[in-house]
Amino acid sequence: MITAFDNDFTSKPHVLHVFEQDGGWHWGITVPRSPAGGFRVIAFSDRAFRHEVDARHDGGNAMGTLVAG
Q1: To pair with 68 at 20 to 30 A between CA atoms, which of 44, 47, 61, 62?
Q2: Residue 4 has pLDDT above 60, yes or no
Q3: Residue-number span of the structural domain to which 48 is assigned
Q4: What Å distances lie between residue 67 and 7, 17, 26, 45, 62, CA to CA?
């Protein structure tokens, strides 16, 4: 399951981040922030995954859902 902050991101390039924190694997999806620069988190995993590959797979599915609208 994903948590998404808003839907004003369809035309911006999405980046999937997978990282280990507190003994589990998580993912987040960002888009470039403008005009201030940097990135904005638009979605993230709401649970930890046991393996990196599982977090990457779930994040990839979420990113596909976000891009498809």
Answers
A1: 47
A2: no
A3: 2-68
A4: 10, 16, 20, 16, 9
d(CA 29, CA 61): 11
| pLDDT over 90 (residue 44) | yes
63: which DSSP letter?
H
CA dist 27 and 37 (Å) reads 21
What is the DSSP code string of 29-50?
EEEE-TTT-SEEEEEEESS-BS
pTM above 0.85, yes or no: no
How many separate domains does the chain show?
1
